[in-house]
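REVIEWER CHECKLIST
Item 1: Sequence provided? yes
Item 2: Single chain? yes
Item 3: Sequence as submitted:
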Amino acid sequence: MSGGLGPLPWGYVRRFGRVVFRQQQWKSTVSTHPKMPPCDFVPEKYKSYPYERIQKIREQNISPSLRMYYKKPLLLHQGHMQWLFDYEGRRYLDLFAGIVTVSVGHCHPKVTVATQKQLARLWHTTNIYMHPSIHEYAEKLASLFPDPLKVIYLTNSGSEANDLAMFMARLHTHNFDIISFRQCYQMFFVVHGEAGIVEILQCRLFENAAVQKGVNGAVQYPRSFLKEAYQLVQERGGVCISDEVQTGFGRTGSHFWGFQTHDVVPDIVTLAKGIGNGFPMAAVVTTKEIANSLAQNLHFNTFGGSPLACVVGAAVLDAIEEDGLQKNSRDVGTYMLLELAKLRDKFEIVGDVRGKGLMIGVEMVTDKHSRHPLPAEEINQIWEDCKDMGVLLGRGGLYNQTFRIKPPMCITKKDVDFAVEVFHTALQRHMERAAK
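Item 4: Structure as written out by the authors:
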């Protein structure tokens, strides 16, 4: 077809005048991207391999189990606070924060400077010697926990922290069995034997064992759920482990740790992701009594608690306090929830908007009556549209039907306005495609 229209987004129509009208209508409603908030940061010019060579190396030398997002995967080059820049200089608002890892902002100046100073002083030494940064950091981190959670083990990753937490719980209780929730990041229990597991699972509180935050779609626990669950487990000789890998460090806004919002004190807490703002480090925090059970066995970690990691961790805690990021999570997160709720009321496919602070889930459904998950191909297209307009979202939920919004805690209300406008445009595009 002549006239320079290119591919027709709504299919072929015989009457040329009708085609022109529909093409123009589509352009006028969805082609204009929402305007990004200003950013005075200028990224460096990309100087590494061309995109095609990067793709070829990935195909040949990197494990295929490391799956990529998006039809054309992003090649990211630089980050600054809530923004990411790709190899061509395009800017993206990062609402997923490296899978909820960049807590205070990409390349946060305070964390960067502290890291650079320590890099010039001492990177690593073994744990059989003392160095000041581990003691300074342990004291600072412990001060943020209620009694009796005051003993800290520093590790390299959340997986390692959870392995250690389960190991010490089993040593302490002399029990092996564990109760957890499907796709759960946030809570698990070590209890006594099959009979104990059955007894707890038969209790009213565990009838819906998929209630959780984090990966399964930012679902909040019902009021008093955790308090009664902790009581059930502890009365039966079990210990309660809270994984704060996503909910910790002020992200929920009202409290520094997620468990505090439920008026409970775990026996063991595991930390990772936002603890180092992207630097590979993690921690287990527990009581002296449980720590003594582990002390009877040799436990050694080569890199956990290195001078560099401890300085990074301390700088992150300073940035959270000095920049008021817990309060920002509460204020900006509440604002975002309210703005997204307007889209829930407008679009039939937005089944739920939920969360706390800057930990938000937007559940996509075919319709609000059936609440069936929106098909993956439709969610993928909305997701791609948001990326093309400059907003990066995560995915989660049992059926991968929930958009996960967990940005660096430094984002602003202007960023929220932009993100909501982008999401609104992507939903409009979806409805227009569905109406074809």
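Item 5: Key structural point noted by reviewer: Residues 1-30, 204-212 have pLDDT under 50 and may be disordered.
Item 6: Recommendation: ____
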